[in-house]
Design goal:
alpha/beta; Rossmann fold; 2 domains; seven-stranded parallel β-sheet; 12 strands
């Protein structure tokens, strides 16, 4: 594949400035022997682009030979249509372990040390110390990481560093260093029974839609917290709200939702033991550089006639 014109779709602005990304690509190409394509920021009119880097899907992408998603998840893209059109789709998996892992560690620390409640009290100008038995330490607590890919491994590594016991759920069931016990998906309920925290890090595919529903929430401890940095559709949101209202679980940290932005009338906004963040667990000031390295790698590979890195379709 010969990439003469590379488009940066303006939807990437959701995560980083397109111009910064273009500069990173140009800087990388100056240090490389790879022929430099014309790199331009584009809207929905993609013109004669041979490749497009994007955050969103648009039907016009089906006429482009190669599309790169700046996210790891590709549930935004109609994979069957890409395959039928012969369009190569690559993604940005492999670059979010640190940012997402640290975000999940932050959520768990917030719940344990009651930091979210202190922020609420500060907003209200109130001096409210927690009850003597309310705060706890993460050391000695357990987290079950559902999905042990790049994101899950990043979470596990940081949980280990905090002195936590880590278990996990993985399709293969294969053991993983730093994870005390690995369950297969058919034993999900069993995996959820013991840990204080459950962190979701699976892609949204038909098998994982509504993976966490009424039965799974009921299997969790009453003092357990659910952390979702996967996709909103992995959790049955109505059942989650019901479980939070009834005290079936203690709380939740949610970065992703079925509908985004989260509607203003969602009950999740007003729950004291729920932390809502706007789908930004992977955000970092270096995000554009990390994605640029992936795109540059694949530009080198296309020039050399080698297979794409992170190819989805």
């Amino acid at each position: 594949m010969n990439v003469e014109r590379l488009g940066i779709h303006d939807s990437v602005e959701t995560v980083f400035p397109p111009e910064r990304f273009r500069e990173a690509l140009r800087d990388g190409l100056e240090k490389s022997a790879t022929p430099a394509p014309d790199i331009t920021v584009v809207g929905d009119d993609l013109g004669d682009c041979d490749a497009v880097v994007t955050f969103e899907h648009h039907d016009a992408l089906l006429d482009v030979p190669w599309v790169h998603s700046i996210q790891a998840g590709v549930d935004r893209f109609p994979l069957e249509a890409f395959e039928a059109a012969g369009v190569v789709l690559t993604n940005s998996t492999g670059i979010h372990d640190e940012s997402v892992g640290e975000t999940v560690a932050g959520y768990m620390l917030s719940f344990a040390r009651r930091l979210h409640r202190h922020r609420d009290a500060q907003r209200d100008h109130e001096w409210r110390q927690p009850a003597w038995d309310e705060a706890f330490t993460l050391a000695g607590e357990a987290v079950c990481v559902v999905g042990l890919g790049t994101l899950g491994r990043g979470i596990a590594e940081r949980a280990n560093a905090l002195g936590m016991t880590v278990t996990g759920v993985r399709r293969s069931g294969d053991p993983l260093e730093g994870v005390e016990r690995v369950y297969t998906p058919d034993r999900l309920g069993e995996a959820l029974e013991g840990p204080r925290f459950v962190a979701l890090a699976v892609p949204l595919v038909p098998e994982t839609r509504d993976l966490i529903g009424a039965d799974e929430l009921a299997a969790m401890r009453e003092d357990a917290y659910l952390v979702n940095v996967a996709r909103g559709g992995v959790v049955d949101q109505a059942e989650l709200v019901a479980a939070l209202r009834s005290g079936e679980i203690a709380g939740a940290a949610l970065d992703v939702f079925v509908e985004e932005p989260l509607p203003p009338d969602s009950p999740l906004w007003g729950m004291d033991e729920v932390v809502v963040s706007p789908h930004c667990s992977a955000f970092t000031r270096d995000y554009y550089r990390d994605v640029a390295e992936l795109v540059l790698t694949n530009l080198e590979r296309t020039t050399a006639g080698e297979p794409f890195h992170n190819r989805v379709v």
